[in-house]
Design brief:
The complex is a heterodimer.
Chain A lengths: L1 H23 L11 E8 L4 E6 L4 E7 L7 E8 L5 E8 L10 E6 L4 E7 L4 E6 L5 E6 L4 E6 L5 E6 L4 E6 L5 E6 L4 E6 L4 E7 L4 E6 L5 E6 L4 E6 L4 E7 L6 E6 L5 E6 L4 E6 L4 E6 L7 E6 L5 E6 L4 E6 L4 E7 L4 E9 L3
Antiparallel strand pairs in A: 1-2, 1-28, 2-3, 4-5, 5-6, 6-7, 8-9, 9-10, 10-11, 12-13, 13-14, 14-15, 16-17, 17-18, 18-19, 20-21, 21-22, 22-23, 24-25, 25-26, 26-27
Chain B lengths: L2 H13 L18 E7 L9 H27 L4 E7 L4 H11 L3 E6 L3 H14 L3 E3 L16 E3 L4 H14 L4 E7 L2 H16 L5 E8 L6 H11 L3 E5 L2 H13 L5 E4 L8 H10 L7 E4 L10 H12 L5 H20 L4 H9 L5 E2 L5 E2 L12 E6 L10 E7 L9 H5 L14
Helix pairs in contact in B: 2-11, 5-6, 8-9, 11-12
Classes of the chains: A mainly beta, B alpha/beta.
Chain lengths: 349, 428
């Protein structure tokens, strides 16, 4: 997703340059508006999605997922490769029951309207799209399964076994693998998409939550909430090649690799922090704490890598971090129980 | 059959994957089945044994739950794991443990639902060099004078419960405490420890009075008069669960309207006890109770864990089910993370300060090196006399220590409950 958004960002920068030049010249680029980016925050207790404009860092809308806050529960999100559609995993607070609320919804970033729903029984928690945007993969927490859905038809074309309390899911940049964490089992299940088979279940840190790939796909990073660690998986050998210790109380959840691939940003829910990890050394280079909201679990960033947004579940807010100063520069009110955060694009918006 | 298991069976067909096959590259390699042994208390089925039976029933559920969930997990990793169990009580627990180890191949033992049983198992385990997980006795003597070098305590210590209770009540402005103590060494130790906590950890409270009773004896009118005269604002019963119920009933009938609570023995943490308290003492029964587990806990992984249990059993997860399941889970994880079921390796993993265990309480927990007591948070329930279901008899109203306290150190936070290294009399 970042690669596409990076291209968009580069184009926006060029467009901006042409526009500026055009003021002095013929104005040929006046119709070439820059892309606009929107931050989406899934509020698990509010049953809604907060929408924030990155240009102003203002809340510009709220998308109601359900009229039953506290019952219906939006959590993990993913974005289409072109950035224009946000997918949200929706479930409820009763994993013991399978309800019609268990589904994936698609939101058009241009209109902030829900444009499609996909049935996904078993408490879907987190999502990932394949690089071509034709498949969506979900962790089904209550069923201990991973599941793949055809975006075009909505068909659940495969389900596979994971450990207990499936959560984090990521598709490798080459589209070959699905990595899926299981909280209670301390595992990452590696699924071969083409050959439709489980390759292995890999032990990682204690209570693994979220998994992301490095930009080149050579590594996967897995946050372990109870262990307070990041497991680094070598995707060639499919073994854990290193463990980054953030401290027992760090409670890391979402993480994101920056556009340069040099930094990994980790949301530390237990310490109200963002840990910045140097991906060359696997060491924490900076810890951002001051003025952070409470219990950040979600983290995303703008395609140019200049701003980070965190979803803070206990303060119902989003912290905006400037990556130049590595400091919080803004706090935006979100909905109740901000859980996850994603960024979408309105092309030339 | 567990619905999760049904689901997993179904998905194997859907995915067309042979999940019974050993996954490539499983981390821990065992060339033999590995077993944890559990000694369960018997269910007696007599009217007099209702509270004990509630514990036994719950503990048995914990064994089944562990066999099913951990069996799935182990199978994924290519490990043949199962729980073997025996039912025994009193001195017979030692023979049962011996049999589970020598005949069933258990590499560790879980059990001990009284001081007597736990002390016997601890001594036996020490002699045999077998890891023993105490899941039912909170007696501080087990962590001190009687401490066994191969014994690990998942059950919170009396010191932990009492520190939590003093903390909650003092902060709620209950400052004059009346104690009802049993004439036993265990109860006397509880009394001494709670006084220590009032003097050293939570200032501002004092003892308003104390009555010492023989086990099973009633305090009668004398106790009622003494409590009324004392000016106490809280009564703490350091007596058995059964005696707590009778005493509450007597005080209630005598018109005492103070806050009355009691020591949280496993029997006194059951929803059956909560229901009995509400029935025996319509006024005093709506009491605050300390617990090690709360089946309505709706945070961390506890929401899913409690939900799976509720689906499996159509009953809330009792403290004994939680402690048995979690005790087995700790021993199982110690084996697969240390890649061995050899006692020395398993115990080495558990005593390593870097080894962290997930108790479904939202914190990475570890054993204290000085007495091998599991650090953990505790809960405060309020009994709901208007409950329509077992689950509704307890309302979660407190948790100590607080989970989210950025800027403080987790281990220090957890060590606010219980004895510190300087206090221990455990000789390693």
């Amino acid at each position: 997703m970042f690669a596409v958004l990076k291209r968009r960002c580069a184009r926006a920068t060029v467009a901006g340059f042409v526009l500026a030049a055009g003021v002095l010249g013929a104005g040929v680029a006046s119709a070439q508006a820059q892309d606009t980016y929107r931050i989406y925050v899934a509020n698990e207790y509010g049953a809604d999605i907060s929408v924030i404009d990155t240009a102003t860092d203002k809340l510009v809308g709220t998308i109601q997922i359900s009229g039953r806050p506290g019952v219906v529960r939006p959590r993990g999100m993913s974005v289409s490769p072109d950035g224009t559609i946000i997918y949200v995993a929706v479930s409820d607070f009763h994993p013991e029951f399978e309800t019609p609320e268990d589904k994936i919804i698609a939101i058009d970033v241009r209109t902030s309207q829900v444009i499609r729903e996909y049935r996904a029984g078993g408490n879907p928690e987190r999502l990932a799209l394949n690089p071509t945007g034709t498949q969506i993969w979900a962790s089904l927490e209550a069923r201990a399964q991973g599941a793949g859905y055809d975006i075009g038809t909505g068909e659940n074309f495969v389900s596979f076994r994971t450990g207990i309390e499936a959560e984090g899911v990521a598709v490798s940049p080459d589209g070959k693998w699905v990595y899926l964490t299981a909280e209670a089992t301390h595992t990452v299940t590696i699924y071969d998409i083409e050959n439709k088979k489980i390759i292995k279940h890999l032990l990682v840190g204690n209570r693994p939550r979220v998994v992301v790939f490095s930009l080149d796909g050579s590594k996967a990073y897995v946050s372990a909430e109870i262990g307070g660690t990041i497991s680094v998986i070598d995707t060639k050998t499919q073994l854990v090649s290193g463990t980054i210790n953030l401290g027992l109380d760090s409670r890391p959840v979402e993480l994101i690799v920056d556009p340069s691939g040099k930094r990994l940003y980790v949301a530390g829910g237990g310490t109200n922090s963002i840990y910045v990890i140097d991906t060359d050394t696997n060491k924490v280079s900076t810890t951002i704490k001051e003025n952070m909201g409470r219990r950040p679990w979600g983290v995303t960033m703008t395609p140019d890598g200049k701003k980070i947004y965190t979803a803070n579940g206990l303060s119902d807010s989003v912290s905006v971090i400037d990556t130049q100063c590595m400091c919080v520069v803004n706090t935006i009110q979100a909905g109740r129980g901000a859980h996850s955060v994603q960024i979408g694009v309105i092309p030339h918006g | 059959m567990n619905k999760l298991l049904q689901c997993l069976s179904a998905v194997a067909v859907v995915a067309g994957v042979g999940f019974l096959a050993v996954p490539a590259g499983a981390q821990a390699q065992f060339d033999h089945p590995i077993h944890v042994g559990v000694i369960l208390p018997p269910e007696k089925g007599t009217p007099d044994a209702v509270l004990g039976d509630a514990v036994a029933h719950s503990a048995k559920q914990g064994v089944v739950q562990a066999n099913e969930e951990l069996g799935i997990t182990a199978e994924m990793l290519g490990i043949d794991f199962s729980v073997v169990s025996a039912t025994a009580e009193g001195a017979d627990v030692v023979a049962a443990a011996e049999r589970l180890v020598t005949q069933e191949g258990a590499y560790a033992i879980v059990g001990g639902f009284s001081l007597t049983e736990s002390a016997a198992l601890s001594a036996w385990a020490k002699a045999k060099g077998i890891p023993y997980m105490n899941v039912g006795s909170s007696a501080d003597s087990l962590r001190n004078a009687l401490c066994g070098t191969t014994t690990f305590h998942l059950q919170p210590s009396a010191a932990m419960y009492l520190d939590a209770m003093v903390g909650w009540y003092v902060r709620s402005n209950f400052r004059k405490w009346y104690f009802i103590q049993e004439d036993t060494p265990e109860s006397k130790a509880q009394y001494d420890r709670v006084k220590w906590s009032m003097a050293n950890r939570h200032f501002g409270a004092r003892e308003a009075g104390r009555t010492v009773l023989k086990p099973g004896a009633s305090g009668g009118a004398a106790l009622v008069a003494a409590i009324k005269k004392s000016g106490a604002d809280v009564v703490v019963m350091l007596v058995s669960a059964k005696d707590q119920l009778r005493t509450m009933s007597e005080l209630d009938a005598a018109g005492i309207s103070l806050n009355v609570t009691g020591f949280p023995y496993p029997e006194a943490q059951t929803r059956v006890f909560f229901a009995a308290a509400a029935k025996a003492a319509p006024t005093l029964g709506a009491a605050y109770r300390a617990t090690a587990w709360e089946p309505s806990l709706d945070a961390y992984g506890a929401r899913e864990y409690n939900a799976r249990f509720l689906v499996r059993w159509d009953e809330p997860m009792g403290e004994s089910a939680w402690s048995v399941f979690t005790g087995i889970k700790i021993l199982y994880e110690a084996a697969f993370f240390s890649e061995s079921d050899k006692p020395a390796k398993v115990m080495g993993y558990m005593t390593n300060p870097a080894s962290i265990f997930d108790l479904y309480k939202g914190l990475g927990s570890s054993f204290r090196p000085w007495d091998r007591q599991m650090r953990q948070s505790l809960f405060l329930d309020k009994i709901n006399p208007k409950a329509a279901t077992l689950m509704e008899y307890g309302n979660l109203v407190g948790e100590l220590p607080a989970i989210y306290l950025p800027g403080t150190e987790l281990v220090e936070r957890l060590d606010q409950l219980g004895d510190l290294a300087a206090q221990t009399k455990c000789k390693k």
